[in-house]
Task: structure prediction
Amino acid sequence: MGMSRRALLKCGVAATVFAPALVRHAAAASDPIVIASMYDLSGGLEAAGKPMYDVLNFAVGEMNAAGGLLGREIKVVSFDTQTNMQLYAQYAQEAALKNKVAVVHGGITSASREVIRPVLDKYKTLYFYDMPYEGGVCDRNIFIDGVTPAHNTQILVEHGLKTWGKKVYTLAADYNYGQITSDWVKKYVKDGGGEVLGTEFFPLDATNFGSTISKIQAAKPDWIMTILVGGGPISFYRQFNAAGLSGKIPIASTTFSGANEQLVLTPEESNGVVVAYNYLQTLDNPTNKDFLKRFHAKYGADYPPVSDLTMASYQGMLLWAAGVKKAGVLDREKVIDALESGISIDAPSGTVTLDPQTHHCIFDVHLAKMQDKKPVLIETFAQRKPADTAAVCDLKKNPREAKQYIIKVN
Amino acid sequence: MAAPGQERLVAICRWHGAPACIPEKRTLDLAVVVGIDFIYAVATLALISVGLAIVFGMMRIINLAHGEFMVMGSYSAAVAVHHHINIWIAILVIPPVAVAAIGAIIERLIIRQLYGRMVETMLGSWGLSLLVVGILTMVFGDITEGVPTPLPGITIGAYQASGYSLFVIAMSIATIFGVYLVLRKSRLGLLARGTMQNAEMAAALGVDTSKIYAVTFAFGAALAGLAGGILAPVSGVFPNIGGSYISRAFITVIGGGPAALVGTISASTLFGVINQIATFASNPVYGEVALLVAAIILIRMLPQGITGRYFRGNL
Result:
């Protein structure tokens, strides 16, 4: 043995360290398109996150079975962010830098979106946020497939003022989504000649609503607007019913049933709650029926109801794929240009079109009332525009914008 | 034309010589409803803390899985209701029995190895709480049918109150009274108190101390399970709802001081009232903040807790 043991060990370590670099070049060939899914699969928001994750994989599975995108297989790298903001920041960076994904579909709460957005902006990774939210995001790198206040909150407020009365009491989640949406409620109520008697904020794990219910009774509103998020506030509906108030004071909600809260409540506790979403599982059109047939064939007929949040994830995936097909390449700038050229898909919720000016969606919004744990359609508002964001944002004119506009209500 | 209630109130006022009647009947109704809220807050705090008062107050075991014991009680109630067992049995009988059994197993496997070692017990029970949350999530998933409220709302004049709130208050009083009877009047209570006071002397007198420890821990766990079962219709049945209980329970028990029962009662009264005053003045978030600030001030002023200075020598 010519080499000393020390020299041999040094060479061995060096070889092991540099080997992957050599091996990787050999592996090349047909690489899949890598995309990232970033949803909470544990920790409190998994009731919303898991169905969105499942439907994303379902869409990818269907696309791959049909030959892939641009002839390449789509591979999903999944990050479970565990309802933890720190992990959102960390995984967003990892997805952009380590996995170099073509697009990130993710974020549930608006707080998580605002954590991911600047990170993906910095590392130039396309971002699709498929969720209802409070509106106002004006950023070239993000496309948002979800209802905003001009889509659904306005419809709910107008319905409430017309059907029930002018005095409103608001209960909202205590973070940016709840706070900004409650400001929009104030604006729409004022525009309709009504009055918001009071607004209360609750964290995602609040469970004690006894004093709130007493306060509501003292204030005597005509109806209640709930913008509640999280597992804890479901007990508001429970305690409201326990006090015998269900049905006495009507409730409209921008979030109810998004995470299938109605499954955990009895019918008496959830009947009569009015919601407005782009998608309802009970929509009666051929695209929806076909989607449900295929989806249930894969995941079983007893899968929890597909909510608007879940469908937004599916539609977001379809929109992105349509953009990539039109661009013909994965280059981010070209895909954004393609997505801005008026992409439109025939989705289970109706026609969904991406608005080039705001990167939000123009789609149908359906007003419905919960009955026996299912939404029953009241009225359809066809092809509603994201008027709230459009009033302040024009990405065609100012493509360098990257901020969220927040409404100011006095 | 005044409502009948208002007429009667006006008549009473005149009888007592007042020229006119100032309080509206409506305000009186509201006062009753708000009063129930206050007592309810105190009762809930006492209910969630009494189990920990036994385990930590008497045995000095820092059980960070106390919230998860409550959640297991809630889940056992939910499963029982799902299998169409009578709701009252599902809430009041099954959770304490189930969680007592689980508590006995945990005591034997984990806690027994760590007697006297506070930091290790903290770590062990914290790991246990994470394990329980994980198992519950895996077994039951994130969507569980809750436990419906078995009592209707009651009408107090122009307002509605929850009939179940009154039930919780009644059960809280009954539980505290039951624990008092067990500890003060029963042989097991006597042995337990003796062992906790001076284990060596008790052993010298022929008491099997390890069995007493096991039974007392199981008793504390049963109380936690009972609290979970009773509160299941109110706060819902989720794997991670234990977190919202544990901090309040610990604050109440430590603020209460060495005496398990009197300490729990006095601390939950103090913190519950402060919490509710702040909640009514603003919103539940500031109510919690007020409770925490009050706890900090209390511990600063009375480091041994309330029963370290007042009500000494009581159970």
User: Anything to note?
Assistant: Residues 118 and 402 of chain A are 8 Å apart (CA to CA). The domain at 33-147+283-362+384-404 of chain A is CATH 3.40.50.2300 (Rossmann fold).
